[in-house]
Amino acid sequence: MSVDSTPEGDQLAPISNGSSATGRETALIVEDDPADAELLISALGSMADHKHVVLVRTGEEALRYIAERCTRSEEHPRVVFLDIKLPRMTGIEVLARLKEDPAMCKVPTVMLTSSREERDIRRSYELGANGYVVKPVKFTEYQKTMRESWAYWMERNEVCLGKCGE
Amino acid sequence: MDATVTWLHFVSDMVITLAYFSIPIALTVLVIRRKDLAFNWMFILFGGFILLCGTTHLFNILALEHPMYRLDGVIKALTAGFSIGTAVALWPLIPKAVALPSSEQLRAANNTLGKEVAERKAAQMELEMAKADLERRVQERTAELATTNAKLRGEIEERRAAEEQVRRLNSTLELRVRERTAALEQANSELEAYSYSVSHDLRAPLRHLSGFASLLQSKRDSLSPEELGRLTGQISTAAARAGQLVDDLLAFSRMGRAEVRRVRVPMQGIVKEVLDELKEELSGDRVRWTIEQLPTIEGDPSMLRVVWKNILSNAMKYTRPRERAEARIWAEEAEADGVKGVWFSVEDNGVGFDMAYVGRLFEVFQRLHESTEFEGTGIGLATVRRVIERHGGKVEARGEVDNGAMVRFFLPRREDKQS
Hints:
Chain A is an alpha/beta fold.
């Protein structure tokens, strides 16, 4: 398992060259709470071993990372797990920015949050979120949920991106 | 001639003369007295004629002694002339005299007239009575109308006053509804944020507790002492975090519920005490404080203490990366929204914040810094705002990323205004 933590957003992890033959694909995790980040990696355990996990702590960093990958025509992250409650720019705002940009909207974005609030769920899907995962309090459930979600998004070959590009 | 016959002539002529002479006198008196007498000139003619006749009889007496034929003849000729004149004048008068109404007729006419007059009088009286009655009625009706009019005017006035009052009440009601709606909306959004935090912020440390405890359990056989220490450290941090959140939430909720006392609060003293407390709690204070003269103001001392504690601890927290941490506290008398009061300001040279998010600064559970950089629950400034707003004041902030922040609050002076 290799995890790159990028607190400043400039120490980005090496990414794949676009060839799926290497099997290295990137998942971007946007999580401001280091404890939550550690638990997430622990929950994925061996599942994330052959994947490359990139961790950023703020929405601004996440946008910068995705934009760079998209404009350079390099392979963008396979999926973005996006926390809603972030300092300054919220996960909802990051999602809106991603989905309104024709270059970045192809990146599947899954909200990963504690919020079970109806308005957060509705707003997320309205803005074009590709998934909404509520973090369970109990670790065993959290582990199960994360593994299922991870498997779904990382091991699929084709992704239906809904209204993106319209 | 015989003496007896002579005497007979004498006496008779004497009586006739006297009688004849008295008649014109009587006629004259009559004509003078009755100025309205018809044909009075005829009475004068008659008087003259009779006087002349009397004079002829007087000459008859004189002729008994001394006949004076010449003079007697002249008198007779005069009498004859007068008689003829009178007789001639009399004839044409007869039809006219006949036409004159008799006194009977006059009386009857008079009676009729009298009756008519009486009737007229009665009618007039009736008329007058009717008129008086009418006038009385008109007066009554006028008075009635005046009363009704006055009443109506009064009613109109009342109605107008009532309408005015309704309008006034309506507008104050609208204002109150607006205020109440705004207050409710704020309460609602606070409540939403509150429930949001319970669903998000409060779950996070619980998830950490469950997570790190599970990790500890699953790795219990292969854990290095360092890893064990780290995991147990995470667990106690999560527990402390949960405790802190509950405490802050309770404090925040208490600041919304507790009644606001209004006593004189010496801000200078409160600030000194709070700074001393903070130095003790945070074990040291690197900030160079500049504290200007702060006035005494009306408010709730324990609530205002919470306000200062939050603002001053923020200044300490966000100046931590500074080599020379500085902060200034000052107050200025001012007027905000037409209310006299005091602005209390705290400015530091800390890490500041992005003005784009200034709207979130005073909202519950909103943080503009990563928890890894600066700890906090995001309740402090929300509590500050709640306390200040409950005092009828307001809060403001200004900042620049990496270039300091200024937080200030306005408290109204209450001396002349009861809230």
